[in-house]
Design a protein that fits this description.
- The chain has nine helices and five strands.
- It has 199 residues and is an alpha/beta fold.
- The chain has a domain of 118 residues: Rossmann fold, CATH 3.40.50.
- A five-stranded parallel sheet has the order 2-3-1-4-5, sandwiched between helices.
- Helix 6 crosses helix 7.
- The protein is globular, with a radius of gyration of 18 Å.
- The relative contact order is 0.22.
- Bound molecules: adenosine-5'-diphosphate.
- The site of adenosine-5'-diphosphate has 13 residues, from helix 1 and helix 6.
C-alpha cells in the first residue's frame, strides 16, 4: 500500500516551489493539474467526446482542443460544466491512481490545488497545506503570471477559503517568509513521512 501525502494550497501559495524541494529529496510527485490537462490531449477519448458534443468549433485547425473556446463556452453555459466534469473527473481519478501506484519512492506526493474541493483526499493518508496570507498570495501570483490582483482574486474566490483548507491540514508549511525558510520545514516533514510510510 502506497503512502500518499496530498499537498495543497491556494493559487500562488508556493505548492510548486515546495514540491520541487521534495522532488530533490527523491520523492515522486504526481501533479493533478498536469494530469487534468493531458486528459484533453489531441485524439484522447475525452477530446473526441468534446468534439462530438460541440463540433469542430471546439478545436484548433491543428486538431488540438481550443481551451479558450471551451472555457468561454462553459462560462456562458454553466450547465455544460456538469457534463464536462462527469466526462473528465473519472478519467482524471483513474490516471491519478495509476501514477500513484506506479511511483517508486518511499512515499509519494499528490499535488493538487483543488485537493479538498475535488475530494482527492480519499487517495491520501495525510494532507500538507502550504499556507500564506491572502495579500501575499495575491502579489506573488500577480508577479508570476503578470495578471492583475483582480484576476487573482477571481481565481481565489473559486477555491476554498484559507480557514477551510487549514481545517483539513495534518501538516502546515508556513510560506509567508523567505524561500530559504522552506528547506528546513521540508526536511523535517520528509523525515516524518519516511517514518510514517515505513510503519
Ligand atoms: P503555486 O504552485 O502554489 O501556485 P508557486 O510555487 O508557483 O505557487 O509560487 C508562486 C510564486 O511565488 C512563484 O513565482 C514563486 O517563485 C514565488 N514564491 C514562492 N515562495 C516564495 C517565497 N517564500 N518568497 C518569495 N517568493 C516566493
Amino acid at each position: 500500500m502506497m503512502y500518499v501525502v496530498g499537498v495543497t494550497g491556494g493559487i500562488g501559495s508556493g505548492k510548486t516551489t515546495v514540491t520541487r524541494l521534495f522532488e530533490q529529496l527523491g520523492v515522486v510527485v504526481v501533479d493533478a493539474d498536469v494530469i487534468a490537462r493531458h486528459i484533453m490531449d489531441r485524439g484522447s477519448p475525452a477530446m473526441q467526446a468534446v468534439q462530438q458534443r460541440y463540433g469542430d468549433q471546439a478545436l484548433h485547425t491543428d486538431g488540438s482542443l481550443n481551451r479558450a473556446w471551451l472555457r468561454a463556452h462553459i462560462f456562458a453555459h454553466p450547465e455544460e460544466k456538469a457534463w464536462l466534469n462527469q466526462l473528465t473527473h473519472p478519467l482524471i481519478r483513474e490516471q491519478i491512481l495509476a501514477q500513484l501506484q506506479a511511483a517508486k519512492s518511499s512515499y509519494v506526493i499528490l499535488s493538487a490545488p483543488l485537493l479538498i474541493e475535488n475530494g482527492l483526499q480519499q487517495f491520501c493518508q495525510r494532507v500538507l497545506v502550504v499556507d500564506v496570507d491572502e495579500a501575499t498570495q495575491c502579489h506573488r501570483t500577480a508577479n508570476r503570471d503578470n495578471v492583475s490582483s483582480q484576476q487573482v482574486k477571481a481565481v481565489m474566490a473559486a477555491q476554498v477559503s484559507r480557514e477551510k483548507r487549514l481545517e483539513h491540514a495534518d501538516d502546515i508549511i508556513d510560506n509567508r517568509g523567505d524561500v530559504g525558510n522552506l528547506q528546513p520545514q521540508v526536511q523535517q516533514l520528509h523525515q516524518l513521512y519516511l517514518r510514517l510510510a515505513s510503519q
